[in-house]
Amino acid sequence: MNDLDMVRDLRSQVRQSEASDLHDARRRLLAAMAPERRARRTRRTVLRVAVVSLCGVTITTGVTVGQTFRTDGDGQVTATAPAWLGVANAETLARRATAAAADQPDVYPRVDQWVYVKRDIYRSPKVTRRSAGEGQAPSRHTEEMWIRGDGKERALREQGSTSIKRRQGGENPRIRFDPAYLRSLPLEPAALLERLKKDSAAATSLPAERAVSHQILVILQEGAPAARLRAALYTVLSQLDDVGVERVHDLLGREGVGIYTVDDEGMRQEVIIDPNTYVLLGGRRVYVGGSPPPPPYGKVPVGEVILSVAQVTTGIVDRAGDVP
Amino acid sequence: MHDSAVIETSLREPERFAELFDRHAAMLHRYVVRRLGPDQAEDVVAETFTRAFEKRHKYAFHRPDALPWLFGIATNIIGTHRRAEVRGYRALARTGEDAVAVAFDERVVARVSASATRERLAAALAKLGRGERDVLLLIAWGDLSYEETAQALDVPIGTVRSRLSRARRKIVHTLGGSNPSDVIEEVR
């Protein structure tokens, strides 16, 4: 650990701030804004009175029209019914996850500890045979991953191997899911969305919403976030465009709720959540058709599960290679 | 909608400025807690956003992300509390007990144990000049890039690099590093 990392570690156990920490600050800001808002409202009212008087209409009618206009303006942003129905279910799930997470303690490792994640992974052989470099891999295998608390190092152990492979950073070090990064994320969903937009834009060339959903998926599956952040990520996911929910089973046969989005290439990306504990069970990528598939998926039938991942174990350990 | 667009809209509709608070207040609050402790953090955040609101017409609208600007305002306010900040580092250095972390980590199970390194680090932070400490902590705790730090402090990026370099050399020296020139600049 270099000197800058040591500074980063100092007081890193300070928890994430939340709405209740900022209630008075927000109230103070709104109070500070009030005189200006009142002044602007007064100017508008005076203007309306003048215009209405010129038109020969009563003053009362003029003010009423102005107020009604403002109220209608807010009401007109309601989404259309079909979109609202699909999103509302996912949002309900996210709300319940948030409520359940409220009393759970955040457990983060120190920078010299490691987050351990064990996953079962299935890749459709119909795809892997056509993909260069993946043809030798079995369609289903288990892998264990470790990521150090400061995100500077990762380690991987493939199924059947007794040794671990260590590497600095990651495949794409700009897509971060290490504990130090996760702890820096805000828990308020609107703020979290903005932060993820900013961070994912710097990391990938995907369109904004796809980049955000991809980053959420990576964080959920590989970063093992604490319950409150996990619930906030569900909430952000549930508020993206064209999100749906469906009862699905993960790779281990566990029933869960799948929050899904469908991309332009006809791939449905699911995050599977335990409906009772709201823990992440895993995820799937399913080809649902509707557009010509990209080359590796050229002859894959509609409904084929391209990739399925089941979370088996997560925890915090002292050394890479240890298990909880 | 980018922050800059929200700020621009708030010139006509002041209440829209609250969106900026909802986006960034939590991140700023945690940063201020780490520097000053929880007792003063909310007050500093409130003051930061109030000042930002008052001078929003001066915002550099070509910068879509307002977080560096807000960090800059917060840093100025933190500067008025620098004696309290330094007292906190000195207390940690002297006793090994970090009142700031203890007061604000009741939900965190994996606590950092006391260590001589941490105490020396706190002593080093207490000794840094204000400008050096601001740069170091905006990068290490605020997670800003060099460029964003330069924007936040309204200084050239070269000044950020030199202040950071000086701060890191002092820290390495305090930690007992034998060769301060080993400090490696991170790519940011």
Task: Give the arrangement of secondary structure elements.
The complex is a heterodimer of chains A (324) and B (188).
Chain A (H helix, E strand, L loop, with lengths): L2 H7 L13 H33 L3 H17 L5 H21 L12 E10 L1 H4 L11 E9 L4 E6 L6 E4 L10 H6 L4 H15 L4 H16 L3 H12 L5 E6 L5 E8 L4 E7 L6 E8 L17 E13 L7
Helix pairs in contact in A: 2-3, 4-9, 7-8, 7-9, 8-9
Chain B lengths: L2 H10 L5 H19 L1 H17 L12 H13 L2 H14 L3 H5 L12 H12 L2 H11 L5 H8 L3 H18 L14
What does this protein look like?
The complex is a heterodimer of chains A (324) and B (188). Helix content of chain A is 40%, strand content 22%. With 324 residues, chain A is of the alpha+beta class. Chain A folds into two domains: 22-73; 81-317, no CATH class. Chain A has a nine-stranded antiparallel sheet. In chain A, strand 7 and strand 8 (280-287) form a beta hairpin. The radius of gyration of chain A is 25 Å and the shape is globular. With 188 residues, chain B is mainly α. Chain B has a domain at 1-80: RNA polymerase sigma factor, region 2, helix turn helix motif (Rna Polymerase Sigma Factor, Chain: A), CATH 1.10.1740. Helix content of chain B is 68%, strand content 0%. Chain B has helices spanning 3-12, 18-36, 38-54, 67-79, 82-95, 99-103, 116-127, 130-140, 146-153, 157-174. In chain B, helix 9 crosses helix 10 (157-174). At the A-B interface, helix 1, helix 2 and helix 7 of A face helix 2, helix 3, helix 7, helix 8 and helix 10 of B.
Summarize the structure.
With 324 residues, chain A is α+β, with helices and mostly antiparallel strands. Helices cover 40% and strands 22% of the residues of chain A. In chain A, helix 2 (23-55) packs across helix 3, helix 4 (81-101) packs antiparallel against helix 9 and helix 7 packs across helix 9 (227-238).
Keywords:
heterodimer; A: 324 residues; alpha+beta; nine-stranded antiparallel β-sheet; 9 helices; 40% helix; B: 188 residues; mainly alpha
